[in-house]
Design a protein that fits this description.
The protein is mostly helical. The chain has 47 helices and eleven strands. The two termini are 51 Å apart.
C-alpha cells in the first residue's frame, strides 16, 4: 500500500517518466527543514539516471549567496572545461567596471551547454535549496524555465518557506505555473505516516505510548528520527518471531504476537530534546527568535494578547514578529490560540533559558496576566511555574480562588497548598477554606480533614451548617456513610437558618440511611423531603429531594419508580444553573438505570447530555464519572477501542476518587486480557494500589478487576487460581461487587469451577446467583446470569438455549459469544456434535468480531477436548487497504466524514476527543489511499446505493451487566 510520502515518490517518478516522453517539465518542491525535500528529488535523479538520461544536481547555501552564478555553476558544471570557461568570464566580470556584459556572456554560455545536452536527449536539472541561491543563478534558472516549452528539459528546484525573497517567490510561481509546471508541498507527516516511519526505523510496530510521544516531532521526519535516536535506550521491542509468546499463542489457537516497540518510560519522564535543536531555526531573524522563546514560557499554546501582556508591548508589534514562525510552520493557528507545532522545539527553546531566569520570567508573566484581569487559570499556571509566591500572588489567589477552582481545580489546589504554607494568619483561614473547596471538587481524601478542622472552628450557625453540608459531601465521596450520617444528624440538631440548606441536609440523611441498609426508613423520610421541596419551589432542593427518593427506591428494589424520580430531579435541575452539579449526578444515575433495563438509546442520551454539561461547566469531578460510565458503556457495546479511550480520558483527569483506579485499570485489564495481550493486562493490574478495595466505593466496582485476574490465571493454565480470584463475589456482602454485575461474576465462577472439577464452589455460586437475581427481579441481566449458572451446572442445553435467547435480545456481543460457547459445550456433552460445531462457529464469530483472541482460543480448546472442531481456525486478517481495512471505530468516523461532519462534530457524536478523531481520519485517508475528506465521501457514495446508518453510542443494544447508582450530593 502506498501512503503519504511513498505516494509522492511514485508521483515524482511518474513526473520524470512523463516529462521524458512529453519533452519537458518544471517542478518546485517546498517543505520545512527536515521534511525530506532533498531525499525526494534525489529519487527523481535516480529515476532519470535509470532511464539513461543525463542528470545534474547542485545545492545553494547561505555562505555562497553573494557569489554570482555559483549555485547554477555547481549544478551545471561541477568540474571540467565547461566550468573553467564560465569561471574565466566571472573573473572578467569581477574585474570590469561594468560587469553586466561578462555575466550575461557566462549565462549565455551555460544556456547553450544545456541546449547541447538537450539535443542529445532529455535532461534533468535539480537545484536544491533555491532560497539561498544568488540572484544571477535565479535569473539563469528563470531563463531555463522558459525554455522548457521548446526543450526536452526537466527542471526541478527545492525551497524552504523562509527566508522569503521576492525574486525567489517570482521564480517559484513560474516553475509551478502552466500545464508543464508543478508544485509539490511536503506537509507534516500524519500520525499514521509517523507510525510507519517508526516501524521502518525500529523494525516493529510502535506501541501507543511511543506513537503518542512521536507527536513531539510535529510530523517532521528528521526531528522524529533524532528524537527516536535519543530515546533508543528507553525503547523496548517485544513479541514477534523471537518472542516465546508467539509459540504459546499458536498452541492455544490465538493469533501470533506481532513485534511491538514501546517506551519503557512515560512521555513526561523522557529526557529533554537535544540542546542543538534550536540551531535548526537559526534562519529566523533575531527579534522573531527572541519572541518565539518568550512564547515558549507560556506553554504549548498561547494567544498574541498573552504574549503582548507578558512582553509589555503592543499586540501589533508582537504579531509582526510572529509572522516568520507562522510562515515557517513552527506555529500553527488553531483558531483561538497559536500552538507550537513541534512540542520538542518548544521544550528546547524553554530549556535554553537559565533556570533562575525562567522562574523570574514566570513570576513576571503571572503578575502581568493577573493585573490585566486575564484568565485565572493561565495566570495560575505562570505562578506555579515561578516557584515561591510573593505577597501580590498570595493576595491575588485569595481574591481569585473560587473562579480558579471552577476553571481548574487541580491547578488551584496545587497553588493553594503552596500559598497556605507561606501565608500569615490573616490570610490562612480564607486560603484553607478555598483549599478545602478545591480538594472537595477533586474528590480528594484530604478534603475531609480540612473541612472537619474548618467546621470545628466555625461559630456562625449559617457558616457551620454550610461547612457541615460540604463535610457530609466529602465523607460520602470517600464512602464513609456512617460518619456522614452522624455529621448530618448533628448538623440538623443545631440551628440551620436557611430552609433550603436544612432540606439539603435532610436529603443527605435519606441517602446515608438508604446506603446503610435502612431503605424503608429512608423512603419514609424522603416522602417528606420531596413534599417540602415542592413547597419551597427551589430547583436545587427539588433535584436533591428527588435524588434522595430515587436512591431510597433503588435500595428497595423498585427500579422503575426510582428511574421516574431521577427524571423528575433532572427536570428540576435544568431550571437553574446552580443545580448543574446535581443534574450531572442525576444524569449519571439515569444512564446506569437505563443500562440495567437494556435501554441503550436512553443511556447514550443521558451520557451525552452529562458530558456536554460537565465540559461546559468545567466540572472535573463529574466529568470523570461520565467518562468512566462512557468507557463501561462502550465496553458493553463491543466498541473496545472506544472503551479504552474513555478509560484513558477518565484516568487523565485530576481527581482522586478511590473507585477510579479500580474502574480504569480493571476495565483496561479486562479488555486487554480478552484480546490476549497478557503482559499489557498484567501491567494494568499492577498499577492498582496495594489494597485496591480498601474504600467501600471501590469494592462496589470490583467486578472487572476480579474477572481480569481470573482470566489471566485461566489463560496461564491455573483454573483453581482463577476460581480463587473470583471467590469474593460469593459473599452476600453489600460492600462486594456491584449488585447488578455480581450475578455475571457468579456465572463465571460456575464455569471455571466446573472446568477445574470444583463442584462444591460451582454449586455455591449457583445458589448465590439465585439469591442475587431474586433481589433484582426487574432487571434482565441477573435473570440471564441465573439461567447460565443453572444451565452450566446441569450441562442442560435447554436452559442454556434460554440463556442464549435472552442474550440475543440484549445483544451484548461478549455475553452472546459466551452463550454460544456454553451451548456448544453442553451439546457436545450430550453427543450432538454437529449442533455443537455450529454453536462453536457462532461463538468464534462473535469473539473474532470483538477481537477477543483469548476467548476464541479457549472455546476451541474446550470443544476440541470433546471431539468438536470448527475446521480451519486461521484468524481472519484485516486487509491492509480499502474499506475492509478500517476498524469499527474508524468505520464510524469515516461514515460521519462522508456525511460532511467536521472533526468537532464527530467528536461530540462519538464521545471522542478531537485529537482522537484527527488520528482516526489520518488512518482512514491512508487506508483508503485518498488525500481529502471529499474523496472519502465519494468512495462511500460509490460503495453503497443508499445511505448507511452509523452505529454510534445508543444505536445498538446494551452489552453486559451494569453497576449501581452514584451516591452523595457533593461534587
Amino acid at each position: 500500500m502506498r501512503v503519504g510520502r511513498e505516494r509522492l515518490r511514485e508521483e515524482l517518478r511518474d513526473w520524470v517518466r512523463g516529462g521524458a516522453r512529453r519533452g519537458g517539465g518544471r517542478l518546485i518542491v517546498e517543505g520545512e527543514p527536515g521534511a525530506g525535500r532533498t531525499a525526494l528529488v534525489r529519487e527523481a535523479l535516480a529515476e532519470a539516471a535509470a532511464l539513461g538520461g543525463p542528470v545534474r544536481y547542485g545545492a545553494a547555501d547561505a555562505f555562497t549567496a553573494e557569489l554570482p552564478l555559483r549555485a547554477a555553476l555547481d549544478c551545471l558544471h561541477p568540474e571540467g572545461p565547461g566550468r573553467a570557461a564560465v569561471v574565466a568570464l566571472l573573473r572578467e566580470a569581477r574585474e570590469a567596471a561594468q560587469p553586466g556584459g561578462a555575466l550575461l556572456a557566462a549565462m549565455d554560455l551555460m544556456v547553450r551547454g544545456v541546449e547541447e545536452w538537450c539535443a542529445r536527449g532529455p535532461l534533468l536539472l535539480v537545484l536544491d535549496d533555491l532560497h539561498w541561491a544568488d540572484p544571477a543563478s535565479l535569473l539563469l534558472w528563470q531563463r531555463l524555465a522558459r525554455a522548457v516549452d521548446r526543450l526536452p528539459l526537466l527542471l526541478a528546484a527545492t525551497r524552504r518557506p523562509l527566508p522569503r525573497r521576492p525574486e525567489v517567490e517570482q521564480l517559484c510561481a513560474e516553475l509551478g505555473a502552466g500545464p508543464q509546471g508543478r508544485t509539490v508541498r511536503l506537509e507534516p507527516l500524519t500520525g499514521a505516516e509517523s507510525a510507519e516511519l517508526l516501524r521502518g526505523m525500529l523494525g516493529a510496530a510502535p506501541g501507543p505510548r511511543l506513537r503518542e510521544a512521536a507527536g513531539q516531532a510535529g510530523g517532521n521526519p528528521r526531528l522524529l528520527r533524532d528524537l527516536t535516536a535519543q530515546w533508543s535506550r528507553f525503547i523496548e521491542i517485544t513479541g514477534g518471531a523471537g518472542d516465546d509468546r508467539s509459540s504459546d499463542a499458536a498452541n492455544t489457537g490465538a493469533a501470533a504476537a506481532v513485534a511491538v516497540a514501546e517506551l519503557t518510560l512515560p512521555e513526561r519522564e523522557l529526557p529533554e530534546p537535544p540542546a542543538t535543536l534550536p540551531r535548526g531555526i537559526g534562519y529566523l531573524s533575531r527579534p522573531a527568535y527572541t519572541t518565539l522563546r518568550h512564547a515558549a514560557l507560556l506553554g504549548p499554546a498561547f494567544t498574541p494578547r498573552e504574549l503582548a501582556l507578558v512582553q509589555a508591548r503592543a499586540a501589533r508589534d508582537v504579531l509582526a514578529e510572529l509572522e516568520e514562525p507562522l510562515l515557517a510552520g513552527l506555529l500553527e493557528d488553531t483558531g483561538e490560540r497559536l500552538r507550537f507545532r513541534q512540542p520538542a522545539l518548544r521544550r528546547a527553546l524553554y530549556a535554553e533559558l537559565p533556570r533562575a531566569a525562567r522562574a523570574a520570567l514566570h513570576q513576571d508573566a503571572g503578575r502581568a496576566l493577573g493585573e490585566a484581569g486575564h484568565d485565572p487559570e493561565r495566570t495560575a499556571e505562570q505562578l506555579l511555574a515561578g516557584g515561591s509566591l510573593d505577597r501580590w500572588a498570595v493576595h491575588w489567589l485569595a481574591d481569585s480562588a473560587q473562579s480558579l477552582i471552577a476553571a481548574a481545580p487541580g491547578t488551584a489546589a496545587e497553588l493553594l497548598e503552596r500559598a497556605v504554607a507561606q501565608a500569615d494568619c490573616g490570610d490562612r483561614d480564607a486560603l484553607e477554606g478555598s483549599l478545602a473547596d478545591a480538594a472537595l471538587m477533586l474528590r480528594r481524601p484530604e478534603s475531609v480533614e480540612l473541612l472537619t478542622t474548618l467546621h470545628g472552628r466555625a461559630t456562625d450557625p449559617g457558616h457551620r451548617a454550610a461547612l457541615a453540608f460540604k463535610l457530609v459531601s466529602a465523607l460520602m465521596i470517600q464512602g464513609d456513610m456512617a460518619r456522614s450520617l452522624a455529621v448530618t444528624e448533628d448538623a440538623l440538631a443545631e440551628q440551620v437558618p436557611s430552609p433550603t440548606l436544612r432540606l439539603r441536609l435532610e436529603a443527605c440523611r435519606v441517602l446515608a440511611l438508604a446506603d446503610l441498609h435502612c431503605p424503608a426508613q429512608a423512603h419514609t423520610l424522603a416522602a417528606a423531603v420531596v413534599a417540602e421541596a415542592a413547597r419551597l419551589g427551589d430547583p436545587l432542593c427539588g433535584a436533591e429531594a428527588h435524588h434522595a427518593m430515587a436512591f431510597a427506591l433503588f435500595h428497595l428494589g423498585r427500579g422503575r419508580e426510582s428511574l421516574r424520580h431521577v427524571a423528575e430531579g433532572i427536570a428540576c435541575a435544568r431550571r437553574s444553573p446552580e443545580a448543574n452539579d446535581m443534574r450531572l449526578l442525576l444524569l449519571a444515575n439515569q444512564a446506569e438505570a437505563h443500562l440495567r433495563f437494556d435501554e441503550p438509546e436512553a443511556v447514550a442520551a443521558a451520557l451525552r447530555e452529562a458530558r456536554e454539561l460537565a465540559l461546559s461547566s468545567r466540572s472535573t469531578g463529574r466529568l470523570v464519572v461520565t467518562e468512566a460510565r462512557l468507557a463501561e458503556f462502550h465496553y458493553r457495546l463491543g466498541d473496545w477501542d472506544a472503551a479504552l479511550a474513555g478509560a484513558a480520558r477518565a484516568d487523565g483527569l485530576p481527581v482522586s476518587d478511590g473507585w477510579l483506579p479500580v474502574v480504569v485499570h480493571g476495565l483496561r485489564a479486562l479488555v486487554l486480557g480478552h484480546r490476549d495481550e497478557r503482559e499489557a493486562a498484567q501491567a494494568e493490574l499492577a498499577l492498582l494500589p496495594p489494597d485496591p478495595f480498601a474504600v467501600p466505593a471501590a469494592r462496589r466496582y470490583s467486578g472487572h478487576v476480579l474477572l481480569a485476574r481470573a482470566l489471566l490465571a485461566e489463560r496461564a493454565g491455573r483454573p483453581a487460581e482463577a476460581v480463587r480470584e473470583l471467590l469474593p463475589a460469593l459473599a452476600d456482602s453489600p460492600d462486594g461487587a456491584g449488585a447488578y454485575e455480581r450475578p455475571w461474576v457468579l456465572s463465571e465462577i460456575v464455569r471455571v469451577a466446573l472446568d477445574s472439577g470444583d463442584t462444591a464452589t460451582a454449586r455455591a455460586a449457583v445458589a448465590a446467583c439465585g439469591r442475587a437475581a431474586a433481589a433484582l427481579p426487574e432487571y434482565p441481566g441477573p435473570a440471564l446470569a441465573l439461567l447460565r449458572c443453572r444451565g452450566l451446572f446441569a450441562q442442560d442445553p435447554q436452559l442454556l438455549a434460554q440463556a442464549l435467547e435472552r442474550a440475543e435480545r440484549g445483544g451484548w456481543p461478549l455475553v452472546l459469544g459466551h452463550a454460544w460457547e456454553d451451548l456448544a459445550v453442553a451439546r457436545a456433552w450430550h453427543g450432538d456434535l454437529a449442533a455443537a460445531r455450529s454453536a462453536l462457529t457462532r461463538a468464534a464469530a462473535a469473539y473474532e468480531d470483538l477481537g477477543a483472541r483469548w476467548d476464541t482460543a479457549r472455546a476451541d480448546a474446550r470443544l476440541r477436548s470433546l471431539g468438536v472442531r470448527r475446521g480451519s481456525r486461521s484468524a481472519r486478517r484485516r486487509p491492509a487497504s480499502g474499506w475492509e481495512a478500517l476498524t469499527p471505530a474508524e468505520l464510524k468516523v469515516a461514515l460521519l466524514v462522508a456525511q460532511g461532519r467536521s472533526n468537532p462534530e464527530i467528536a461530540g457524536a462519538l464521545f471522542l476527543s478531537t485529537r482522537t478523531v484527527q488520528t482516526h481520519v489520518s488512518h482512514i485517508l491512508a487506508k483508503l489511499q485518498v488525500r481529502s475528506r471529499t474523496a472519502v465521501a465519494a468512495q462511500a457514495a460509490a460503495r453503497r446505493s443508499g445511505p448507511e446508518p452509523v452505529r454510534g453510542p445508543g444505536t445498538g443494544p446494551v452489552r453486559g451487566p451494569g453497576t449501581g447508582p452514584v451516591r452523595g450530593p457533593g461534587p
